[in-house]
Amino acid sequence: MATSAARHWLMKAEPNSRIEKGKDVKFSVDDFEVVGTTPWEGVRNAEARNLMKSMKVGDKVLFYHSNCVSPGIAGFAEVAKEAYPDYTAWDPKHPYYDPKSDETNPKWYMVDVKFASRAKHFVPYPLLRDIAAGGEEPSANVEYVGEEGVKAIKGMDLVHRGRLSVQRVELAAWDVIVQMAEKGGWDEDVARGKKSKGRATAPGKTAGRKRKGRDEEEDEAGAKRSSGDAGEPRRRSTRRSVRKD
To answer: Which pLDDT belongs to residue 66?
Structure first.
């Protein structure tokens, strides 16, 4: 049963193919929508693990594309099952096997996360970063967020501790991201780091899958690779071999 006061989080996954031990750890918003509910396995960072252990059913989640050419918020989700041992850490064949963890003494935990919806407008990390680096007044293309919205974005862990694959999100920041995802207003190609004459990406579409190295400014190890964070990635194959931090 969900708690009366849901908390808010950001969780990262890699939208592009990357093979680890013969398994593709890719997990995009497209994959998430198809799967519906998925265990968030593969997190191998202690802080990210501890944050997941504090999650409650019904908590809200920003689903974030990480370690890719166009990082940003691609959808919304919610916690469907509270933390339980991440059994993938006990499997020597799994990309995120950890010999220091076993069934009798589990070191890593995961939660189940349920897909809720796509972002009508993909909210790109470069846009949030630029808002956070600017003044108190929002730029013309997102002036609707107001000064309070700018303040909320400036306070997000995403713009200060970008590499962590699981992050807390304050309610004010959640609300402004939801507003941005609904209204859009920016040149989406430019905000994604593409050279464009201003043609916006269709609502709900994500960036192309071509992978570049790592997004050094915001992600440590990709996150769902993302899974482990601090260098840890996460996410999963379409079962979701993702690694989360």
So the answer is: 95
Average pLDDT of the residues in 79-91: 97
Give alpha helix (H) positions in 165-226.
171-183, 188-191
Name the pTM for this structure: 0.80
- Helix (H/G/I), strand (E/B), else coil: 227: coil
Of 205, 186, 174, 203, give the one whose Cα is nearest residue 144: 186
Length of the chain as a residue count: 245
The pair of structure tokens assigned to 86 is 């991440």
Report the DSSP beta bridge partners of residue 61: 9, 77
**Helix/strand/coil percentages in the chain, nearest 5:** 25, 25, 50
pLDDT over threshold 50, residue 92: yes
Q: Three-state DSSP class for 90? A: helix
What pLDDT shows up at residue 119?
Answer: 98
Is the CB of residue 70 less than 8 Å from the CB of residue 193? yes
Does residue 112 have a pLDDT over 70? yes
